[in-house]
Design a protein that fits this description.
This protein is mainly alpha-helical. The protein is built from 4 helices and no strands. Helix 1 crosses helix 3 and helix 2 runs antiparallel to helix 3.
Length: 108
């Protein structure tokens, strides 16, 4: 990772995601794992842990890096069925004072 000039924080985050992934699958031999195990882990994060979209993307990127660069077995991904919800929230702005006052009646 240092050769690719990733920051130390990215390196730590990717290492932690790989460790959590392996722990989630109860240390199943990594040569037996692939896309299906990654999909199950990401679904678990989205549904059970209710992580944000950006966190789910970081976990996915970490696992893609782990499989491609560490294990030398690249993953090919189809869309993930259960995704974390987007953090977009809409809200209404309270009316300003000028808008809440009644306008004077028009005179003819």
């Amino acid at each position: 990772m240092r050769v690719r000039h990733y920051s130390i924080r990215t390196e730590e985050a990717y290492e932690n995601w790989a460790r959590r992934f392996l722990t989630f699958h109860r240390l199943k031999p990594v040569k037996e794992m692939g896309e299906e195990e990654v999909r199950k882990y990401l679904e678990y994060l989205a549904v059970a842990r209710k992580i944000s979209v950006s966190t789910q993307r970081q976990a996915l990127n970490a696992l893609v890096f782990f499989f491609a660069e560490v294990l030398k077995q690249p993953l090919v991904f189809r869309p993930i069925p259960a995704r974390a919800r987007s953090g977009v929230t809409t809200f209404m702005r309270p009316p300003s004072r000028n808008r809440s006052r009644k306008l004077p009646a028009k005179q003819a």
